[in-house]
C-alpha cells in the first residue's frame, strides 16, 4: 500500500474566516485543545432502554448496557460504552468507547444521529465537541441528538499508542540522511517505519489485530442499540463512508437513513487509492495555481504566468527546499516532504487557499513558519505536543484493512503517479509501515451491495482531491439502494459547505426521509 497517501479525514478547523495566519493559529489552538468543563456538573442522566431484540446471548452483556450520561465541556453529555475486544470472540477481552452527544436543540429529539469525521483515526468526540456548528447544520441539530464517538483505537477510547512527542517529531519531520533516492535515505526511512510499527505493538496493549473497520462496524451497531435506536441514522464523511458502507453490508436490516459524504470505493486496492489521491491532489493544486496567478485566492500570489508556469515554479521550490531545508525557530527544518504535507493540508478546502499562498510565499522567502503551521495542523501538533493519536490510528486501520498488493501493482502505481502527478510524485511514496506491521491484514477490498438496506445517500464532489468523485460513482453503483448526489465544486466533502442544494438534500433526507432524485447535481 502506498505509504504517503493522505488520510481521508475531513479537515474541519482550517477554513475559519480569520484574517492572518497568526490570528488563525490563536483561534485554532483553542479549538484543537479544548479542555473539558471542570465546573460542578449535574448528576448523571440515565440513558434510553437498549434495543436487544435478536441479539445472541453471548453479546447481551454488551448490548444490554444502560448508559449513564454526565455533563461534559459546555452543552454536551459524555459516556463510555464497553465493547468486546474481538467481536468474533466476545470472551477475549473488552475495550472502552468514548461517546459524546449534544441533545436536540428543539428539546424533542426524533432520534440519535451518529457521525464519523473520517480518518481513519479522526476523533468523533472532538469533532462534535469542537466543530459541531461547522460540521452539522441547524436543521439536524434541532431534530437529532447528535452523537460522536472515538472509534476503537482512537483518542479517548481504548487507543493505539506508538511514539511519544519527540519520537513522533523525528518520525514525521526529520530529514533522512544521504539525499533523496540514495541507499542511505531509503534505509533511514525503512528503519523509521520498522521502529514505528514496533513501538505500536509494544505500547498498544495487544489491541492492534482488532483495529479494523469490520470490528468498528460492529461497535457502531452496539452504539445504535444502547442509544435505544432500532435503526441507524448516520452521517459519515470520507473514511466514515467506508465505515458506514461496511455497517450496511453487515446489518442491512438495521439501516435507517445513511448519508455517506466524500465516498471511498470499498473495492479500490491500496495502490489504486494512492494513484487516485496523487492525481486528485495534483489536479487540485493546478486549480489552486490557476486561481493564484489570477489573483483569486485572497492573497498576493508569489507566482506569475499561467497555471502551468506556476506548477513548474513550485516544482523548482520543492527541489530547492529538498536540497537546502529551511530552518525554523524551534530547531526543526522544513524539507520538501513537510512542505508537501502543508500543501496537501491546505488543498482539502478552497477556504484554505489564502493559508497556502502565505505558506508558499514564506517558503520562497526562506521563512517556513506558515508551512509548518499547515503541516502541524495536518499532523495534530501544537507547541511540540500532539493533540490526538490520529497518525497511529491511521496506520493501524490501514495496515489491517488493506491486503498487500503485488509488486507489479506497486510498480504501476509509481509509473502512473510520475506520469499523471509529476509535481507531487517525488514526494508521495516512501517506506511502508504496513510492511513491518506485526499482524497480517484481515480486510478485503471488494464491492459492497448491502441488499435489503433502505436508501443510502452517497455524495461525491467533482473536485475532491482526497476522495475522488469516481469513488462516489462506484459506491453508489455498488449499493443496491445507493442514491448518488453530485456536488460540482472543489474541496473534500460537500455537506454544510457552500452548497445550499447539498444541505437541503441531506437535511430533508435525514429529517423527513425524503430521498433525493438519484443523480441530482448541485453546483
From TrEMBL:
InterPro entries: AB_hydrolase_fold (IPR029058), Pept_S33_TAP-like_C (IPR013595), Serine_prot/Carboxylest_S33 (IPR051601). The keyword Signal applies. SUPFAM superfamilies: alpha/beta-Hydrolases. GO terms for molecular function: hydrolase activity. It holds the Pfam family Abhydrolase_4. Keywords: Hydrolase, Signal. Residues 1-34 form the signal peptide. Residues 423-522 form the Peptidase S33 tripeptidyl aminopeptidase-like C-terminal domain. Belongs to the peptidase S33 family. This is Alpha/beta hydrolase. It comes from Microbacterium oryzae. The lineage of its organism: Bacteria, Bacillati, Actinomycetota, Actinomycetes, Micrococcales.
Amino acid at each position: 500500500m502506498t505509504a504517503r497517501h493522505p488520510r481521508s479525514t475531513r479537515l474541519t478547523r482550517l477554513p475559519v474566516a480569520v484574517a492572518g495566519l497568526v490570528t488563525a493559529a490563536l483561534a485554532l489552538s483553542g479549538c484543537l485543545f479544548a479542555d473539558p468543563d471542570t465546573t460542578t456538573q449535574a448528576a448523571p442522566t440515565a440513558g434510553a432502554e437498549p434495543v436487544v431484540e435478536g441479539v445472541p446471548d453471548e453479546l447481551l452483556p454488551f448490548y444490554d448496557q444502560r448508559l449513564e450520561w454526565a455533563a461534559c465541556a459546555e452543552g454536551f453529555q459524555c459516556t463510555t460504552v464497553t465493547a468486546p475486544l474481538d467481536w468474533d470472540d466476545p470472551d477475549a477481552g473488552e475495550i472502552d468507547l468514548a461517546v459524546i452527544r449534544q441533545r436536540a436543540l428543539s428539546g424533542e429529539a426524533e432520534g440519535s444521529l451518529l457521525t464519523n469525521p473520517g480518518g481513519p483515526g479522526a476523533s468523533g468526540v472532538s469533532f462534535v465537541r469542537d466543530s459541531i456548528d461547522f460540521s452539522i447544520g441547524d436543521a439536524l441539530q434541532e431534530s437529532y441528538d447528535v452523537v460522536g464517538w472515538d472509534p476503537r483505537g482512537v483518542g479517548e477510547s481504548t487507543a493505539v499508542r506508538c511514539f511519544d512527542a519527540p519520537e513522533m517529531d523525528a518520525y514525521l519531520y526529520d530529514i533522512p540522511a544521504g539525499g533523496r533516492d540514495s541507499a542511505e535515505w531509503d534505509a533511514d526511512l525503512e528503519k523509521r517505519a520498522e521502529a514505528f510499527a514496533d513501538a505500536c505493538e509494544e505500547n498498544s496493549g495487544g489491541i492492534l489485530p482488532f483495529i479494523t473497520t469490520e470490528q468498528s462496524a460492529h461497535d457502531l451497531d452496539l452504539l445504535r442499540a444502547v442509544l435505544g435506536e432500532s435503526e441507524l441514522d448516520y452521517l459519515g464523511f470520507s473514511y466514515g463512508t467506508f465505515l458506514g458502507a461496511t455497517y450496511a453490508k453487515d446489518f442491512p436490516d438495521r439501516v435507517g437513513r445513511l448519508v455517506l459524504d466524500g465516498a471511498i470505493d470499498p473495492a479500490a486496492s491500496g495502490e489504486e487509492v494512492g494513484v487516485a489521491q496523487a492525481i486528485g491532489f495534483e489536479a487540485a493544486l493546478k486549480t489552486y495555481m490557476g486561481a493564484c496567478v489570477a489573483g483569486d485566492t485572497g492573497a498576493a500570489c508569489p507566482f506569475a504566468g499561467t497555471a502551468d508556469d506556476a506548477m513548474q515554479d513550485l516544482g523548482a521550490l520543492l527541489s530547492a527546499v529538498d536540497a537546502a531545508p529551511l530552518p525554523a525557530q524551534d530547531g526543526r527544518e522544513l524539507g520538501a516532504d513537510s512542505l508537501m504535507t502543508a500543501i496537501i493540508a491546505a488543498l482539502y478546502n478552497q477556504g484554505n487557499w489564502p493559508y497556502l499562498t502565505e505558506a508558499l510565499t514564506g517558503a520562497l522567502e526562506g521563512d517556513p513558519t506558515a508551512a509548518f503551521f499547515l503541516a502541524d495542523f495536518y499532523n495534530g501538533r501544537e507547541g511540540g505536543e500532539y493533540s490526538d493519536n490520529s497518525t497511529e490510528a491511521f496506520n493501524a486501520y490501514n495496515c489491517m484493512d488493506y491486503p498487500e498488493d503485488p509488486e507489479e501493482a506497486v510498480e504501476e502505481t509509481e509509473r502512473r503517479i510520475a506520469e499523471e502527478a509529476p509535481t507531487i510524485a517525488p514526494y508521495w511514496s516512501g517506506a511502508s509501515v504496513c510492511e513491518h506491521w506485526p499482524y497480517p491484514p484481515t480486510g478485503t477490498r471488494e464491492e459492497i451491495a448491502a441488499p435489503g438496506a433502505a436508501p443510502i445517500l452517497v455524495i461525491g464532489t467533482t473536485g475532491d482531491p482526497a476522495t475522488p468523485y469516481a469513488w462516489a460513482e462506484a459506491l453508489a453503483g455498488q449499493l443496491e439502494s445507493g442514491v448518488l448526489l453530485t456536488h460540482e465544486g472543489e474541496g473534500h466533502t460537500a455537506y454544510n459547505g457552500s452548497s445550499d442544494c447539498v444541505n437541503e438534500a441531506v437535511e430533508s433526507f435525514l429529517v423527513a426521509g425524503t430521498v433525493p432524485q438519484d443523480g441530482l447535481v448541485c453546483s
